[in-house]
Amino acid sequence: MNCTRRHFVQTSAAAIAASFCPAVTLAETAYPSRPVRLVLGFPVGGLSDIAARLLAPRLGERLGQPVIVDNKPGAVTNIATDWVLRSQADGYTVLMATVLNAINASVYDKLPFNFIRDATPIASILDAAFVLEVHPSVPATTVAELVAYAKAHPGKLAVASAGVGSPEHVASELFKMMAGVDMLHVTYKGSGPALTDLVAGQVQVYFGPVAPSVEYIKSGRLRGLAVTTSRRTQALPELPALAESLPGFEVSAWHGLIGPRNVPAPVVQVLNKAVNETLHDQAIQARFADLGITPVAGSPEDFRALIVRDTEKWANVVRTVGIKPEA
Fold first, then answer.
1. What does the pLDDT profile of the chain (327 residues) look like in tens digits?
2. CA dist., res. 325 & res. 154, Å (int)
3. Hey, which residues does 205 pair with through a beta bridge?
4. 69-89 in b/e burial notation, b at 16+ Cβ within 10 A?
5. Which domain holds residue 52?
6. CB contact set of 322 (below 8 Å; sequence gap of 6+)
7. Which residues pair with 260 in a beta bridge?
8. Residue 9 maps to a domain
9. Are residues 158 and 210 in the same domain?
10. Is residue 15 part of a domain?
């Protein structure tokens, strides 16, 4: 009797455990079941960091798990990119990718990864313009006048950048190519020093980030001529898009989420949905407008197409100009 009872209890327990196995398995594999790490290749305080920290708590609310921002600056974002691309493809480690990833693909010929091949595009996030701005000493109030002056004085105007291969640098090189002008490239270690010297008149032209330039332009200490995105920006609505003067000109400091190669499609869908919903948040849209950036919701396929298109575009500029990384 005891043996029979023991057998019954053991058999019943096994049956009950078996009936719960599918639920346990589902609970263990449901995404996300732990915090998500959002890696940035930039230090604290810049546009990418500000945007990430604005998005992270709202993404966490939609995912039901915290989203932790992890800054890993260095090597023009290549350290952070390599670290994420080598991580497990489970959706718990993602990168805030930017246009720099598209530029770096051709500037650096010995990267330990191929960004297009090794990344899983998840969601586009934002579109940030640069502003073509000049020191007030430059006798130009429009793009056409700047082009005419530069052609009449080849090599006289100094155009600043935030470093060799930076978005500001390739923007200026694209402008020189399309407008047929010659300007002297002066490189700085970051956008802050470049903007400071522009205000001081040490350089005359700069394709600068919109947010830190707005007050200088509004106060008259700098003169804005155009923005580099295909559409005007709310932060400087009076300025035309540069494409209105140079058809086809477009430079966008886009940002978006990527993961390592082979992140499962259901995980990509969950993250994409959470990002797109967050970008429709009115508070996020208002704060982005203050920063001169535009939320860009879309599918993973849309984001992949953007990455491929910009990688090819900047490869052409890099090859034509002969841009090489700084030693």
1. 444 444 434 444 444 444 444 433 333 469 999 999 999 999 998 889 999 999 999 999 999 999 999 999 999 999 999 999 999 999 999 999 999 999 999 999 899 999 999 999 999 999 999 999 999 999 999 999 999 999 999 999 999 999 999 999 999 999 999 999 999 999 999 899 999 999 999 999 999 999 899 999 999 999 999 999 988 888 899 999 999 999 999 999 999 999 999 999 999 999 999 999 999 999 999 999 888 899 999 999 999 999 999 999 999 999 999 999 886
2. 25
3. 134, 159
4. bebbbeebbbebbbebbebee
5. 36-126+252-321
6. none
7. 119
8. no
9. yes
10. no
For residues 131 and 232, give the distance between their C-alpha atoms in angstroms, rounded to a whole number.
Answer: 10
Angle at Cα 68 formed by Cα 268 and Cα 76, nearest 5°? 85
| Residue 203 covered by a domain | yes
Residue 12, in any domain of the structure: no
Phi (first) and psi of residue 78, to 5 degrees: -70, -30
CA distance 239 to 224: 7
Residue type, 52: A
CATH number at residue 49: 3.40.190.150
Query: In angstroms, rounded to a whole number, what is the distance separating the alpha carbons of residues 259 and 81?
Result: 9
